[in-house]
Amino acid sequence: MTHSSPNPDRVRVLYSFPNKIGGERICYTAWQQVNGLAAAGAEVLLSPASSCRPVPPEVSLRPTLARGKLRIPFKLLGNGRAHALHDHIVACRIEKLAGQIDIVHTWPSGARRTLEAAAKFGIPTVLERCNSHTRYAYEVVQKECERIGVYLPPGYESAWNDEVLRVEEEEFRLADRLLCPSDFVVQTFLDKGFSRDRLARHIYGFDEKTYCPAPDYKPNQGGLRMLFVGFCAVRKGMHYALEAWLKSPAHRGCTFTIAGDFMPEYAKKLAPMLSHPSVRALGHRNDIPELMRNSDVLVLPSVEEGFGLVCLEAMGSGCVPLVSDACTDVCKHMDNSLVHHVGDVGALTQHITLLHENRILLQRLRSAGLSLRSSLTWDAAGARLLDVYRETISMYSKSSDRVPSLVGVGN
Predict the structure, then answer these.
(1) Domain check: are 255 and 164 in the same one?
(2) Shared-domain flag, residues 182 and 238
(3) Spatial separation of the C-alpha atoms in residues 91 and 27, rounded to whole Å
(4) Domains of the chain: total
(5) Are 235 and 192 members of one domain?
(6) Of 404, 393, 400, 34, nearest in space to 200 by CA
(7) Is the same domain home to 180 and 274?
(8) SS3 category, 374
(9) Are residues 112 and 19 in the same domain?
(10) FRET pair for 356, CA 20 to 30 Å: which of 11, 223, 285, 349?
(11) Are residues 18 and 166 in the same domain?
(12) In terms of domains, do 256 and 119 share one?
């Protein structure tokens, strides 16, 4: 087992991230997660492939594929080889760190050797699950693509990849616990045969300094303003959003703004609906906080999701989420959001219409979301994650061997 920390209340974590921390999407999530852990009092040894944003001074930064300003480009090696090289380097470091760390936090597609090395030296491990079970995600997105007649080329987001699936399912088997940011993610693993105590619930957060409400917001002024933020792919359910919008009377005189790039074939499929004068497709944008502040509702009818950071960012901006039940369970139906079952266009249409016609309800949902701001920050998420670390360390230390319920794997 690992040696006791000089400060028994201070958890020492080796945080391994196989990409450029501080970049976009999951790279941003990982960066904020590290910031939150540091704020919560964890002692963080950070090993990303590389870094493009500063981390708190108390975080020890040791990249694997970069030195100073020099980086090994992923395009040179390919993602698979780059992730494997990162994993190998972190695994080699663990032997020297035995007795100096209490837990290892890993991310998908770059964790197998690291998890094996940690097990060898008796260090408990967690694996981030920023999306649902990989096999489930592939299956449900492939089925939806076939249903609407859109082909995902190899290498595209959510396209079936046997090698990635093989690697990630092996990582699922090796990790002591899987970090699940939503009940939806938990359920996809339970459905694959994983025991519940291997699935640790945590949460992501939002930047409360960047995402804040407009001081002069007036819910009764003008028509309903609906917003979508993110990459427009089949898994995000943009086709459902457009169909529901055009079936609702809100499309007459109101605006649906889309901030995000489209997969080309998907854009062609949706072209007739995208051409409607009430729909504004802006492409990739850098002014998302401003767009959220100036919108009434955020729509996210995802077919498959991990968490949906934009839901928290919207709530923190005073923008009411209209989401599928694949999104974060922070969104509570008729409390701070309106939630529909995946693929239920009729329900989503009703929800758009309801908030278009009932501005009192819109204001009530908006206020309820804003009241949660302090509990949904990245600092709050970091404190919750630190609690999960402590819980996992405690579960692990109760036996000199691995706890049987922790190592049982799904089918």
Answers:
(1) no
(2) no
(3) 21
(4) 2
(5) no
(6) 393
(7) no
(8) helix
(9) yes
(10) 285
(11) yes
(12) no
Is residue 210 domain-resident?
no
pLDDT in tens, the chain (411 residues): 344 444 557 899 999 999 999 999 999 999 999 999 999 999 999 999 999 999 999 999 999 998 776 777 777 777 888 999 999 999 999 989 988 999 999 999 999 999 999 999 999 999 999 999 999 999 999 999 999 999 888 878 788 999 999 999 999 999 999 999 999 999 999 999 999 999 999 999 999 999 999 988 876 667 899 999 999 999 999 999 999 999 999 999 999 999 999 999 999 999 999 999 999 999 999 999 999 999 999 999 999 998 889 999 999 999 999 999 998 789 999 999 999 999 999 999 999 999 999 999 999 999 999 999 999 999 999 999 999 999 999 998 765 454 433 443 343
Query: Token pair 């035995």 is at which residue?
Result: 98
**Do 187 and 268 have their domain in common?**
no
Query: Which residues share a beta bridge with 204?
Result: none
1 part of a folded domain = no
Residue 119, C-beta contacts closer than 8 angstroms, at least 6 positions apart: 125, 174, 402
**Boundaries of domain holding 31:** 12-205+378-407
Structure tokens at 310: 């934009």
Entry pTM: 0.90
**Which tokens is 168 given?**
């990630």
Q: What share of the chain is helix, strand, coil (3-state, %, to 5)?
A: 45, 20, 40
Quick check: is 4 in a domain?
A: no
Q: Which residue has the tokens 């970049």?
A: 23
3-state secondary structure of 304: coil
* Domain CATH for 299: 3.40.50.2000
Give residue for tokens 């020297």: 96
Q: Look-up: residue for tokens 């703004």? A: 257
Q: Is residue 130 part of a domain?
A: yes
Of 308, 132, 155, give the one whose Cα is nearest residue 237: 308
